[in-house]
Amino acid sequence: MAKDYKEIFSKLIADMKLKKSLGIEKVQKAFKLAESLHAGQKRKSGEEYILHPVEVALTLEQHDFDSNVISAALLHDVVEDCGYTVEEIKHEFNSEVANIVDAVSAITAKSLKGEAAELLKQDEFAKFDLKEMSYQKLISLGKINKYAFYIKFADRLNNLRTISCFPRYKQVEKVRETLRWILPLLKLFRAYKFYNEIANECYCILNEDDLTKFNIIYDAYYSFNKRIYSEVKESLLLSLNDYLRKNKKPTENTQVKLRTCTKLEVVNMIEDAFDIKEVKNIKQSQFNKVPITKLYIILNNSIPTREAKNIVFNIIENDLQDVLKIIGYEKNTLFNFNYLVMQDRFRNKYQLKVFNLADYVTFRNGSTDGTDIDLVDEHASEIVTRYIKVKTRSGEEIFMPEGSTVLDFAFKIHKDFGFSVKYAFLNGSPSKSPIYTRLAEGDKINLEIAKTEDGLVKNIAELRWITYCKTDTAQKALIRHFEKLL
């Protein structure tokens, strides 16, 4: 059934009114402008294009961003796709909305002038370079207005969720771009919810075939426990409100949020707990052995988070012994936070965290406050000690250090290929990927090798190639080669 973008926008406005948000008229104005400018445009799926910015805007509204951010989300593609200008947005709205849209608008060949445009025309890798330049622009302008990053996060999440209409190689290219740029940014800003959802979409796209059995178990587990979850949630909320009223504490904004873990989170926890190497070996009986459901208890901002925790622990220990009990204490090492492990009477396990509302929003959305944005390059390029599995043209599987490039792969296959590789075709894509392209899990790589007129392998290595490779093997081979020439 086709989605109705007007219904989705009506929900967005209704949510804003319920929250008594400011700037509703501005958001409505942005919607009308975006609807007019995108009129007649279609997505690859055949849906009206305006559906995309409306869904991006709804995601940000549900994350409690303000009217400037929501308006910018509605307009985030009008400069790039409709010929509308940043100055026009500034005139119609304000400089903050305009700056956010400017930051997330991709650089195009038309937008470049002078020497940069001429260089781009000569570069056979122009499309790749434009993407790199667009992300560098986002990082540069994002230092001025951090909310541009969050529009990019919501935009990418929506793109990944609607990617199935694209060819497989396009999907993999989008995932690789996400792993290269978006995930390091998310981790840097501690945007916990966006990180989990985007990482999960990437994982599911790359492992689509292997997840067939797991998806059935995952859906069945959460569906079976729906009634139990409702009971746990209602019991907690009732006891919380009773306690707060009796002790003359504010009940406004008291919430109990129950969230299922993503498929990637569940896979990681079960694989770690049972030393499982492949997702297809996961069994349904293992699901309730690890805390794969999240319980977030949120109290009014007038109650400090430390006091909120004491209130909740008191209620669980004294009033809810038959519903929940505390059985442990664990740590999320990726985002460096602790949570209590709870168990219900059916032995389902939960991750429990308690906040006041302000601390919950920061935990969920993250923050760039106090963050050195310049560190993003370090995060984006660092090599960790994990390995990825890639494939040769013939389908042979090879393990490479995570962060390896096409050039590293060429040296891995044969030293002569390392000195003569021109570019590669990845995953059946007709696009030429430069030798400095980072490889992702599951990539199938077809190298294009330079040859002489006699058909012999031709050494075309340049000194700057040393900066393109990440493995010691490739770097040392290049260094030895150029030492002999100098």
Automatic annotation (TrEMBL):
<protein>
    <submittedName>
        <fullName>HD domain-containing protein</fullName>
    </submittedName>
</protein>
<dbReference type="Pfam" id="PF02824">
    <property type="entry name" value="TGS"/>
</dbReference>
<dbReference type="InterPro" id="IPR012676">
    <property type="entry name" value="TGS-like"/>
</dbReference>
<dbReference type="Pfam" id="PF13328">
    <property type="entry name" value="HD_4"/>
</dbReference>
<feature type="domain" description="HD/PDEase">
    <location>
        <begin position="45"/>
        <end position="169"/>
    </location>
</feature>
<dbReference type="InterPro" id="IPR004095">
    <property type="entry name" value="TGS"/>
</dbReference>
<dbReference type="InterPro" id="IPR003607">
    <property type="entry name" value="HD/PDEase_dom"/>
</dbReference>
<dbReference type="InterPro" id="IPR012675">
    <property type="entry name" value="Beta-grasp_dom_sf"/>
</dbReference>
